[in-house]
């Protein structure tokens, strides 16, 4: 079963195709990593499948056309963590995470005990509870990422899309992020992340490789065919090897 499928002929802006000929299937209850060089179209693709970017094509979320989902229902189905989000800098971190509960709350209703407990659990999981009363704009890059990750967790959607969630995170918090993703997948959620950290992307269940606005390979991170495709796209200086049973990619 697929959590999401997309057939996108193109996303065209200012007369230029940013992505084209996309045929994508996101397997359910798996972690999919989307990788590729700068400008390959990864963020454009993620925004298109989240419904945040107009595209010439069709996206199906849980078997139903994305645009047929009423907004609140779609918010309960799909959580989004974007890159360099602005607009919430004046809000307290806890209020930012509470935004993740909006699809679950009646219009203008105050947060319930369940909403408050969910927010606390999400902020505890990303170790951001301690700065719940600080404004988002006052946090460091990594602290901010962990608050935005908590917001996505608090949304409790079966599918979460994340654009460069590891940006600004130090290695221990990157490992924490992977553990969180693994736990979510284990409990039946689907995660899609755009990643630059190839060594972590190689730990995913499913890899989507993009170059020049197209998907050039999909497959298991453990497959020799995937490694060959990565070397073709990133060049022969990318060394892929196994360390303690895990695949890693190192620029040489
Ligand atoms: N709003 C826009 N208007 C015009 N061009 C855009 C716009 N957004 C993105 N692009 C261009 O589309 C291409 C793909 O951008 P995108 O951000 O999707 O790439 P990416 O693979 O996520 O890159 P990176 O790894 O650098 O974040 C790039 O050449 C970018 O300059």
Automatic annotation (TrEMBL):
Part of the ABC transporter complex HmuTUV involved in hemin import. Responsible for energy coupling to the transport system. SUPFAM superfamilies: P-loop containing nucleoside triphosphate hydrolases. One of its GO terms (molecular function) is ATP binding. Keywords: ATP-binding, Cell membrane, Membrane, Nucleotide-binding, Translocase, Transport. InterPro entries: AAA+_ATPase (IPR003593), ABC_transporter-like_ATP-bd (IPR003439), ABC_transporter-like_CS (IPR017871), P-loop_NTPase (IPR027417). PANTHER family: HEMIN IMPORT ATP-BINDING PROTEIN HMUV. It comes from Pelomonas dachongensis. Residues 3-237 form the ABC transporter domain. This is ABC transporter ATP-binding protein. SMART domains: AAA. Signal peptide: none annotated.
């Amino acid at each position: 079963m697929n959590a999401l499928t997309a057939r996108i002929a193109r996303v065209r802006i200012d007369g230029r195709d940013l992505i084209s000929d996309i045929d994508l299937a996101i397997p359910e209850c798996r972690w999919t990593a989307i990788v590729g060089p700068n400008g390959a179209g990864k963020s454009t693709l993620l925004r298109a499948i989240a419904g945040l970017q107009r595209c010439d094509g069709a996206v199906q979320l849980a078997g139903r056309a994305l645009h047929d989902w009423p907004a609140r229902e779609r918010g309960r189905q799909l959580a989004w963590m974007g890159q360099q989000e602005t607009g919430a800098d004046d809000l307290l971190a806890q209020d930012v995470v509470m935004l993740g509960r909006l699809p679950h709350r009646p219009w203008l209703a105050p947060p319930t005990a369940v909403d408050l407990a969910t927010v606390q659990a999400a902020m505890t999981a990303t170790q951001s509870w301690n700065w719940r009363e600080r404004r988002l704009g006052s946090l460091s890059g990594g602290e901010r990422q962990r608050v935005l990750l908590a917001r996505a967790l608090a949304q409790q959607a079966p599918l979460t899309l994340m654009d460069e969630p590891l940006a600004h995170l130090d290695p221990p918090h990157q490992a924490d992020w992977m553990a969180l993703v693994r736990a979510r997948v284990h409990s039946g959620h689907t995660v899609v992340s755009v990643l630059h950290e190839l060594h972590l992307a190689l730990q995913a269940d499913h890899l989507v490789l993009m170059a020049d606005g197209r998907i050039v390979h999909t497959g298991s991170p453990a497959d020799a065919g995937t490694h060959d495709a990565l070397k073709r796209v990133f060049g022969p200086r990318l060394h892929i090897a196994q360390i303690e049973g895990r695949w890693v990619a190192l620029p040489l």
